[in-house]
Structures are given as C-alpha cells and as structure tokens.
Write a structure and sequence with these properties.
Strand content: 5-15%
Order of helices and strands: EHEHHHHHHHEEH
Structural class: alpha+beta
Radius of gyration: 17 Å
Number of strands: 4
CATH class: Alpha Beta
CATH topology: Glutaredoxin
C-alpha cells in the first residue's frame, strides 16, 4: 500500500466510541477541503489499554471507562448520535474484513453508517456472520461475492491493512496521517485542518 501525499490516511476502530464520533467531522473536513480521506479499519489493543476483559478490570480501570462513556455520550449528543456503553470486548475481525470488502466496491459508508448507528445503540452483533452479511446486502453488495472474499482474501487483506497501520506508526484510533504528520483523536481535527490549509 502506497502512502498518498495529497490524501489523509484515516484509521478507525468499529469498537471505539471516539472513532465513531470523529467520522462525521472528518468527512465534513474532507468535503470542505477537497482532500480525500482514505479510510482503513484498525484493531486497537483494548485489553492492554483498559485492563483486560470486563471482569478483570481494576476499580481504576472501571472508573476510567465510566468516565469515557459519559464523555462520549456528551459528545454524541452534540451530533445527534447515540453511544451506549459496551458489555464486552468485541472481536472486530469479521466486521473489519467487511469494511475492506465494502470499501473496495465503493460502498463503505452505505455499509458502515447503519452498522455503526445500530452497534452503538447495542442493536448489532459485530461478531455475527449473519448480521454482518445482512448489513452488506443492505448496502447493495453481493452475498456470494462476500462469501468468496471471506474464504480467499479477507484474512490477508486485514493483515495487510494492519501492517500498513504499523508502518505508519498508528497505535490507536481514530488516527489521521497527512503528509507524514500524525493526528490522534477526533479532538485533533482542527489541527489536521490547519495542516491541510497550510499545504
């Protein structure tokens, strides 16, 4: 995967509420600036970041997560979005592979927007093959093509994407990289916009 000079490499994790809340502002910035955002799924090591599985977390980790979701609900309200706290550490592999499948067929947001809205209302199971397949079909994609991709290409495609992120130094999501400069977090959107305007 090449690094485009005149585009933003954008990484988001389906399970990250801050990623979810950054999507709208980032896409609006892309429209305003005319700079293409090249979107990639990212898999954050939440176990290390937040103290393991839900039942393994210390009182400090629990308090930190409670604050995180309270903070995200405040931010979500400003965008008219719903963010409900999670009850488990979801395995994002299947849905991340589906992102790459939809992206390659120019149906990324037709797939992601309804999926993410439902997931953050806790009405979508990221680990369910049936639900992921149905979301792809609802986005106008072929179930038979998806099954073929899943069997032959999905694992390598996601591994290549995560290697691409590692080469760029990505360590969390959302992360935006423009002309070699990294911006981690949706609260860095103003700095990213300034960098784009300076270019």
């Amino acid at each position: 995967m090449s690094i485009g000079i005149d585009r933003v490499e954008a990484f988001f994790d389906l399970r990250s509420p801050y990623s979810y809340l950054a999507l709208g502002p980032a896409r609006a910035l892309s429209q305003r600036s005319g700079v293409t955002f090249d979107w990639w799924p990212y898999v954050t090591d939440f176990q290390s970041a937040y103290g393991g599985e839900v039942e393994q977390r210390s009182s400090r980790d629990v308090a930190k997560l409670k604050y995180l979701y309270m903070d995200c609900r405040r931010l979500a309200k400003l965008q008219g979005l719903t963010v409900r706290s999670t009850t488990k550490l979801w395995n994002p592999t299947l849905a991340s592979q589906a992102i790459l499948f939809a992206k390659a067929r120019n149906r990324l947001w037709e797939f992601c927007d309804p999926l993410l809205a439902a997931f953050w209302r806790r009405e979508f199971d990221l680990e369910s093959p049936a639900e992921v397949a149905a979301a792809l079909v609802n986005a106008g994609l072929s179930s038979s093509e998806w099954n073929g991709f899943l069997q032959k290409e999905a694992e390598a495609a996601l591994a290549g994407t995560l290697e691409h992120a590692e080469r760029l130094g990505v360590f969390g999501a959302p992360t935006f990289i423009y002309r070699g400069e990294m911006f981690w977090g949706g609260d860095r959107m103003d700095l990213l916009e300034s960098a784009i305007l300076r270019a």
